[in-house]
Amino acid sequence: MLLMATVAQWIEGARLRTFPNAITPVLAGSGAAAGMDGFDPLIALLALVVSLSLIIGVNFANDYSDGIRGTDDSRVGPFRLVGSRSAAPGAVRNAAFACFGIAALAGLGVVALSGQWWMLAIGALCIAGAWFYTGGSKPYGYAGFGEVAVFLFFGLIAVLGTMFVQAGQVSGFGIGAAVGVGALSCAVLVANNLRDIPSDQVSGKRTLAVMLGDRDTRTLYTALALVPFVITVLIGLRNSWVLLGFLALPLLLTPLRAVVRGATGRYLIPAVRDTGFAMLGWGTITGLALAFG
């Protein structure tokens, strides 16, 4: 039987709600670079292409790998191309590889313009990390290392890498922004994995949430969600404009309430989405404050 997903299904499979995880670090890193008079709009744009291509690629890669393993057969959450039998596994895999190729080309442009050729190795590491999250014979996402990878790739590397290729250096403010973005990006994944604990236990996917259990995962989410605002206070001691980052706090109240009050299953889907929006808000405000404060 020939499986032909519609354009709308492919777009849904790309998981647009995860885009804040890709956009936020580029905004924060570019703002930090601008604060050091190093902002380069073309490099920033290419860095955004890299980040968006990687996150779409990892979403398709996860859809493919989880789908062929049967992990998505009974999972609550976003639409899956392979799990729903809407698209052939090979087509989804090829879409992932195409996105990784776009990321590689845009990344080549970044290093050519910045002259930081050694960062090609960082780019290769990011692509490998995107694929082996759920791909390969021993995916690290099935062994509880997903949050570590998200903090590293969509926090430290994405923010500081964006800053470095523009300004040629990193600052303490940039490191603070990277930690804050990384923590919120991890919180998005923790909320997602909290929702999936029952189905992941059945399928044998040992995420950090499965290992910690329901209660401790909720505590972890709360701690990660509040880390950026500790960063806001610390950076605010030197740059008072960064304190405007607290304007993003109301965006976290609803998902925090849902997690703390014990929401489960599909009732956690809005918490995943809203945590991403809070991250985008905090990162945008912090980036602008670092640029103009």
Overview of this structure, please?
The chain is mostly helical. The chain has a single domain, classed as Farnesyl Diphosphate Synthase, CATH 1.10.600. 71% of the residues lie in helices and 0% in strands. It contains 12 helices and no strands. It has helices spanning 7-13, 19-34, 41-69, 89-114, 119-132, 146-167, 172-195, 197-203, 208-212, 214-236, 250-260, 269-292. The chain is globular and about 50 Å long. The N and C termini lie far apart (59 Å).
What about the largest sheet?
Answer: none
Distance between the termini: 59 Å
Count up the helices. 12
| SSE succession | HHHHHHHHHHHH
Count of discrete structural domains: 1
In helices, the fraction of residues equals: over 70%
Based on helices, strands and strand pairing, what is the structural class? mainly alpha
SS strand fraction: under 5%
CATH top level?
A: Mainly Alpha
Parts with pLDDT < 50 across at least 5 consecutive residues: none
Q: What's the multimeric state?
A: single chain
The overall strand count is 0
Outline type = globular
CATH architecture: Orthogonal Bundle
Nearest-integer average pLDDT? 93
Integer-rounded radius of gyration: 19 Å
- CATH topology (level 3) name: Farnesyl Diphosphate Synthase
Spell out the blueprint of helices and strands:
Blueprint: H1 7-13, H2 19-34, H3 41-69, H4 89-114, H5 119-132, H6 146-167, H7 172-195, H8 197-203, H9 208-212, H10 214-236, H11 250-260, H12 269-292
Helix pairs in contact: 2-3, 2-6, 2-7, 2-12, 3-4, 3-5, 3-6, 4-5, 6-7, 7-10, 7-12, 10-11, 11-12
